[in-house]
Specification:
The chain is α+β, with helices and mostly antiparallel strands and about 80 residues long. Helices cover about 40% and strands about 25% of the residues. It has helices at about 5-15, 45-55, 60-65, 75-80; strands spanning about 20-25, 30-35, 70-75. Strand 1 and strand 2 (about 30-35) form a beta hairpin.
Length: about 80
């Protein structure tokens, strides 16, 4: 079973300098929701942003240990425009 801190640390290893918040949405350790604000997302389409987040988690996605990860991804500029909601 995974936890939110584990998922968060994998994302931060791949995207250092990002702001990452992760929640276990079901309490079962396999469904998570993450908000990631990263300068690496600047100029990238949403699908490209999501690919950058999913990449370091492939091992756990493939094994089924991580069943679902809902993402909200933003560049710092996008996040600022939203008013840091």
């Amino acid at each position: 079973m995974l936890d939110a801190d584990f998922v968060r640390s994998r994302i931060l290893e791949a995207l250092p300098g990002s702001e990452v918040e992760v929640q276990d949405t079901t309490g079962t350790g396999d469904h998570f929701e993450a908000r990631v604000v990263s300068p690496d997302f600047a100029g990238k389409a949403m699908v490209q942003q999501h690919q950058l987040v999913y990449a370091p988690l492939q091992q756990w996605l493939k094994s089924g240990e991580l069943h679902a990860l809902a993402l909200k991804t933003y560049s710092p500029e996008q996040w600022k425009k939203l008013g840091n909601r």
